[in-house]
Amino acid sequence: MKYKKAKRFILLRDRLNYPLRFNPFVFSKLFFLWVAVGAIGGIIAGSYWIVLEQLLHFLSQFQGLLVIPLMATAGLLAGLIIHKLGDPGEMDLIVNNIRFKGGKLEPKNNPSMILSSLLCIASGGSAGPEAPLVQVTGSTGSWIARKLKFKGEDLRSLTIAGMASGFTALFGAPLGGSLFSLEILHHRHVVEYYQALIPAFVASCSSFVIFILITHIGIGPTWEFPVYSTPQLNDFFYAMLYALAGTAVGWLFIFTVRQSKSLFNMVRMPIYIRMAIGGLLVGTIAYYMPLSRYFSHDQLSILLKESFSVEFLVTLLIAKIFAISFTVTSGWRGGFIIPLFFVGAITGLIINSLFPGQNLPLILVSCMAAINACVTRTPISTIILLSTLTGFHQFIPIMFASLTGFFLAPKTPLINAQLGVKSSEHE
Fold first, then answer.
1. Tens digits of per-residue pLDDT, 196-251?
2. How many CA atoms does the CB half-sphere of 299 hold within 13 Å?
3. How far apart are CA 277 and CA 5, in angstroms?
4. In a domain, 220, yes or no
5. Which domain holds residue 175?
6. What is the rounded CA–CA span in Å between residue 163 and residue 73?
7. 301 and 382 together in one domain
8. Same domain for 302 and 162
9. What does each C-alpha distance from 52 to 39, 66, 128 come to in angstroms?
10. 14 lies in some domain
11. Is 0.85 surpassed by the pTM of this model?
12. Which of 215, 246, 280 represents a domain boundary (last residue)?
């Protein structure tokens, strides 16, 4: 008993003698490191976005038949960049390294990723900047962690925080970006990586502010959706019903991507030849169906504002699925989340045209949530991302639709590394 009292006295004396060592708050010095990682991610994302906008403005002047040689040339040049500067890999590599290599992402190929993705996206590829940004900012976080001699979960957490900062900057959803950076690793491992949630959230908030200051993009929904009326109990049932259509299109998309990948893998060829062929195919689709060009950030707004026939919407749906498939399987750099939302919106408009008088905003958001959850296996972050991007603030219908797409997804995911098996190609 006397020993315990003496020990308590010594501890109390040490606290009194060293008051600066006593921190009455939750946060520690690591908080400022997470903020710094987010700020750096915001600067990278903001700079990337400004350059991308300038390139989009310049290359969008090429219309009509010129689109085909433009995109074939862009694919060739982007392929040569990757051939000379190194292959930065794709989302499979990111997930694989986070899960099996302690979160170490190599920044040495970031110049290749930045240059090739800017060229691919700006020329009209059907893939967005989210994947390149996630890789660049994630590897930057990993580089900072290694410079500070972090190991284990601390290194992994800082890498995930970097990933979240890049994703958040583009989508303007700090919580959605944080959760996505965990969910994309595999839904069963969100709890495993829970330690990284707060670092990711702090970095996301920091990145969001910096990105807004750099780009001057307003805070608010990205797309002007029809106003959703007061939710009814039946809406949850209808959300799942509409989600079945979105999930079916998700299966079709996954099947098309796999067939396209097999097609490109039939013949071994240099990356620049493969990407030139991909550009030729995507450019041809864009010539006949201009709305299928680009990653659909602006095209979705056009889709919502104008009226189209069912025949046109079905043709556009097929064209966009093939455009995304050829883009991502031929080696073009970019992500497919925004293009998937576009495909989901087309599906919703087709349903609304076939069965008029339904709740259009509910149809749209249900199909968009279902297809993204089906393909990317990110049902939780999909809810928050869609709510932020569309201004559809009734979470529960989106939740039912997102879970429907998730649980009815194919057992084998599109991103192979989500299976939990170490990929030998990245050894």
1. 788 888 999 999 999 999 988 766 667 877 777 767 778 889 999 999 999 999 99
2. 27
3. 78
4. no
5. 36-215
6. 31
7. yes
8. no
9. 20, 20, 11
10. no
11. yes
12. 215
Are 189 and 239 contained in the same domain? no
Q: How many domains, in total, are found in the chain?
A: 2
Q: How far apart are CA 205 and CA 169, in angstroms?
A: 9
User: CA-based diameter of the chain, in Å?
Assistant: 91
Judge whether 29 lies within some domain.
Answer: no
Name the amino acid, one letter, at 120.
C
Q: Which amino acid is at 129?
A: P
Say whether both 134 and 107 belong to one domain: yes
* Domain at 57, CATH number: 1.10.3080.10
216 Rama class: left (phi>0) / alpha (psi -120 to 50) / beta: left
Tokens 């303007």 correspond to what residue? 172
Task: For the chain, give the percent of residues with pLDDT over 90.
Answer: 47
Rounded Cα–Cα distance for residues 298 and 313 (Å): 17
- Nearest CA among 53, 124, 127, 118 for reference residue 284: 124
With 0-12 / 13-18 / 19 or more C-beta atoms within 10 angstroms meaning exposed / middle / buried, residue 158 is buried
CA 201, 202, 208, 214 dihedral sign is: negative
- Rounded-to-integer distance, Cα 270 and Cα 319, Å: 26
How far the first Cα of the chain sits from its last, in Å, is: 57
For residues 171 and 62, state if they share a domain: yes
